[in-house]
Amino acid sequence: MSDSFTEEAHASQAAIDDVRWLQPRGSNQMGMSQFNERVVLQAVRLHGSMPKADLARLTNLSTQTISLIINRLLEEGLVSKRAPVRGKVGQPSVPIMLNPDGAFSIGIKIGRRSLDVLLVDFVGNTRERLSLSYPFPVPDTVFAQIASALNSMAVLLGPKLLPRLCGVGIAAPLGLGGWQNLLEMAPEQANAWDSIDIGQRVQAMTALPVEFAKDTAAACVAELVLGRGRSIKSFLYVFVDIFIGGGLVINSHLHGGLHGNAGAVGSLPLGMATAGARNPPGQLLGDASLFNLEQLFILAGLDPTAAHDGRALQEPFATHTTAWLDDAARAIALSINSATCLLDLEGVIIDGSFDRGLLDRLLDEVERALECYSWEGVARPQVLGGTVGSDARAIGGAFLPLYAHFAPDRDLFLK
């Protein structure tokens, strides 16, 4: 299908249990069958395909309980069997894997420059993408395109798979009208989003359950579930987009904070406030966002969209990109040093909506900038590149209903 919002159809109804993530550990007590099913599904998702015996050891469930659970999951179409593994003593083992067609979810990213709607399967693969670019998100246009996209996804799934569509997850900035002066938006454009409950507007379009998360927190969820979050338990997540933002993971759980802004690195100050000064010190957002790189290109008479693709590292763009990298890396390094002193981080993961080559350059520059700081009294964290990329926000949104429906603990994503 093309990246246009055209086809229309009726979406099916679905209901989910509000149950969420836990590291896989089950119980053999009576009345726990559904919980244990979710524990097994989570174990396979986190650790990959494995035979029943390994699942029993990992989840602390008996082999008999595991056999009963696997048989139910096979009947429900949520898992499937891989080819038997031979060559060892005794019967060949049969690894159990998630069935990609076992369930589906729709992830919606509403950004300041673009809208993405993804159809994601049970293992996290993107099956379909519908996108729309704009200079500014006009509410009526955005919601009309979302409604059309939901219908298009229903048509794509067809009668057989449509009942396996379990929900819709939305990722968007908490203040789409924020920073209007920086973006040179008219007040009426910026204020149009102030009275809109995005979740409610989308919920009115479908009988499917709808979840909402801050866009950078959703991107952090994608990295937590599909990327480096599998091996790093506590990390600061930094996502470089039009405006830089982030998320915070503590002990393998996304930490939202009182107002949902934990990990909001874009608001970190880059200097000390001075008594009597007219203006407060600048924020990380003002030095390390792709908006700044776009502005450098515009001032040079170049295409600003090159900030998001491989042209950024080619002349005549590369000279301006190098200048941006210097400013951005030093600002991010300051933020990493401050955050580490407060949180004792295991790692920092940096990703963004730009070319992977530019990510590699940014990581190198950040490492160099970190050398300028004293790490006496604190352990310097490892700095790693994210593995999901620009789609992290929409994919993270899609995982909200998937985990609500199939994971065992209520505490993976904090609203």
UniProtKB/TrEMBL annotation:
Pfam family, one: ROK
InterPro entries: ATPase_NBD, ROK, WH-like_DNA-bd_sf, WH_DNA-bd_sf
Lineage top rank: taxon: Bacteria
Homology family: Belongs to the ROK (NagC/XylR) family.
Record GO terms (molecular function): kinase activity
The protein, known as: Sugar kinase of the NBD/HSP70 family
SUPFAM superfamilies, sorted: Actin-like ATPase domain, Winged helix' DNA-binding domain
Keywords, alphabetical: Kinase, Transferase
Signal peptide: none
